[in-house]
């Protein structure tokens, strides 16, 4: 009987021992499973968060159009033109590229025929016109940023032409770009234009300067900023008459009513003015800060 009881007791102890071992193994498995589950949950959460962020960024890019398509005249240095490396460059384009970068938009410079700019904007082929675009006289035609630069319309003549003032343009052939601010300014002074022998228009100012160099015209009416740059780059014997045709300001023009994109660009330009970026880009192109935002 004692042996039987002893055997039962031994069996009981062994069973308990095995149960204890089994419990220990089960506990270890549970902990590992819990850790794996937690890791999996964290990975899933991180993946979900990443996917959600990507989805949000994509939605934001889609809502903003994903790109900033900048319409410009590629023959209008230094504001926008085709560089020697075959890439579009210029003061305005560099500003636009920086704005697009800060807004998380893809920057796309789109050369356009200047007299087709309104059609390009209305059709949605471009998002804005950013190319030494004069606000004066066009205030109600576009949704504008604030002016970022001041400008004047002037006459460029040969250094030895004998033309020293606008009065000396009487009987002379004057040329300007079609649908330009200079053309608009000349229409405001019929008494002056009536004295010209002829007033011609051309598609771009590169052609106008070639005409002036060849003696086909006596003067060019154009933006003073562009005139100064052209004269310097060409190392030409041209001068700018001191008496100006008109004063004006440059802004970025958007399709009428597109205040959402205008506001984003305006805020970014103000940010660039505050951190010195506008000043830096201006000094690169003009040797001085000619910008007006925040001043």
TrEMBL record:
Keywords: Signal. Its main location: other. CDD domains: PBP2_AatB_like (cd00996). It is found in: Cell envelope. InterPro entries: SBP_3_CS, Solute-binding_3/MltF_N. GO terms for cellular component: cell envelope. Coiled coil: none annotated. Pfam families: SBP_bac_3. Residues 1-19 form the signal peptide. This is Solute-binding protein family 3/N-terminal domain-containing protein. It comes from [Clostridium] citroniae WAL-19142.
């Amino acid at each position: 009987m004692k042996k039987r009881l002893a055997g039962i007791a031994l069996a009981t102890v062994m069973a308990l021992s095995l149960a204890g071992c089994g419990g220990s193994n089960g506990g270890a498995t549970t902990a590992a499973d819990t850790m794996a589950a937690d890791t999996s949950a964290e990975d899933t959460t991180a993946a979900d968060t990443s996917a959600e962020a990507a989805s949000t960024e994509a939605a934001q890019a889609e809502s903003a159009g994903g790109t900033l398509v900048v319409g410009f005249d590629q023959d209008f240095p230094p504001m926008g033109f085709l560089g020697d490396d075959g890439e579009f460059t210029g003061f305005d384009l560099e500003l636009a590229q920086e704005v697009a970068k800060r807004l998380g938009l893809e920057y796309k410079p789109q050369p356009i025929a200047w007299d087709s700019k309104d059609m390009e904007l209305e059709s949605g082929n471009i998002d804005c016109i950013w190319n030494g675009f004069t606000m004066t006289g066009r205030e109600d035609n576009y949704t504008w940023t604030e002016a970022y630069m001041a400008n004047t319309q002037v006459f460029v003549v040969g250094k030895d032409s004998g033309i020293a003032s606008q009065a000396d343009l009487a009987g002379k052939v004057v040329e300007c770009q079609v649908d330009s601010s200079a053309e608009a300014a000349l229409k405001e002074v019929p008494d002056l234009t009536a004295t010209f022998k002829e007033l011609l228009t051309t598609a771009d100012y590169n052609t106008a300067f070639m005409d002036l160099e060849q003696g086909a015209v006596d003067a060019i009416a154009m933006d003073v900023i562009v005139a100064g740059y052209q004269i310097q780059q060409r190392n030409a014997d041209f001068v700018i008459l001191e008496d100006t045709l008109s004063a004006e300001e440059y802004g970025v023009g958007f399709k009428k009513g597109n205040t959402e994109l205008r506001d984003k660009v305006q805020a970014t330009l103000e940010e660039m003015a505050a951190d010195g970026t506008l000043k830096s880009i201006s000094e690169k192109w003009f040797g001085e800060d000619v910008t007006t935002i925040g001043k």
